């Protein structure tokens, strides 16, 4: 085992090593299959116009009195 030249026994010095190819970026996870489109629902009917707040409060009070006799 004399200190001979770097023949095929050992790795050649780095200078003669062919530059390693730039490691390709690993392909990211395969894209998920697109979700099955949901059955298109008809647009929600717009809410009926709310009565003015005072009416709401008075009606609430009325129902409250009807349900729970104060």
From TrEMBL:
Source organism (scientific name): Phaseolus coccineus
Residue stretches of biased makeup (Pro residues): 19-51
Name of the protein: Uncharacterized protein
Region called Disordered, residue ranges: 1-70
Domain of life: Eukaryota
């Amino acid at each position: 085992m004399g200190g001979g030249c770097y023949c095929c026994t050992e790795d050649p010095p780095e200078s003669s090593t062919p530059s390693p190819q730039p490691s390709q970026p690993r392909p990211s996870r395969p894209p998920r299959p697109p979700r099955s489109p949901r059955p298109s629902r008809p647009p929600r009917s717009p809410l009926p116009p709310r009565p003015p707040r005072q009416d709401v409060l008075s009606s609430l009070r009325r129902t409250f009195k009807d349900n729970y006799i104060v």
